[in-house]
Amino acid sequence: MPSTEVTEIKKSTSYLVVKRAMDIFFSILLIILFAPVIIIIAIAIKLDSKGPILADTPNRVGKNGKLFKMYKFRSMIDNAHEMLRDNPKYSNLYSIYKKGSYKLKDDPRITKIGHFLRKHSLDEIPQALNILKGEMSLVGPRAYYPDELQEQQKKYPYTIDSVKIVLSVKPGVTGYWQVSGRSEINFDKRIQMDAMYVKKRSILYDLWIIAKTPFAMITGVGAL
Residue 221: is its pLDDT beyond 60? Predict the structure, then answer.
């Protein structure tokens, strides 16, 4: 479990109120607009492989270090995360996973439909529910795994201050690093980009990131 010590970057009350209103508006709009796509994705997942429609993934680290369950469409085989971490058969793959900033370029656990969902970030749609629950924001830093934060801070000790800044806000469905290369960016650069976003964040900056997100989804640049 990562430290809950945070470094808060103060923002005006008006910004926080408008940001929350934007979160609610866009998450509801997302659910309405993508309703037909959600149905198609759910059917495709069930036809493609055994397992639930939503991924049963480990908890993520949210604001102030609080853990929460992030909703995603399942893009991997059932029990993929437990398999990678606990099955001795995948110990070498897990080592590569950790060395690669908790990303795998050729992940054998990803399903056929999962490759398409992940490339175009369609597996992230259910996170609209996390936004409505107040656990996430539409725009914000990446939602990291607890062990990911622990291991990567050991590997990059100079990122500790950036982590404290990042954990002072809600994680986002999209964010600055997501529209700037995504998985091609290692942890040390990614956490610094997340911290920079927290310092610079404003309504106009958020809108700029939102405007860039559809292009990143369509092109799939940097996706794994």
Answer: no
3: in domain: no
Q: Report d(CA 82, CA 56) in Å as an integer.
A: 10
Give the number of domains in the chain: 1
Q: Mind giving me the DSSP string for 173-185?
A: EE-TTTTTTGGGS
Crossing angle of helices 13-33 and 35-48, rounded to 10°: 60
Residue 164 lies in a domain: yes
The neighbour count for residue 70, using CB atoms within 10 Å, is 22
Tokens of 126: 């259910």
Residue 41 lies in a domain: yes
Q: Is position 209 within any domain?
A: yes
Alpha-carbon separation of residue 166 from 14, 21, 68, 197, 220 (angstroms): 21, 21, 16, 9, 25
Please tell me the distance from the alpha carbon of residue 157 to that of residue 96, in angstroms, as a whole number: 20
The pTM of the full predicted model, rounded to 2 decimals, is 0.84
The range of the structural domain enclosing residue 202 comes to 13-219
**Res 180: pLDDT:** 80
